[in-house]
Amino acid sequence: MKDNIYMDYINNNPDSPESRAKRRKKHKMARVWAFVVFFAVIALIAAGLFFSVKAIINRVSGNISTATNSSDAGNNIIAEVDADSDDIKDTLEDLLGGEAIIAPPEEIVEEPEPEELFETWLDEKISAMPIEERILGLFIVRPEQITGVNTVVQAGEGTRKALV
Question: How far apart are alpha carbons 84 and 137 in whole angstroms?
Answer without folding.
Answer: 61
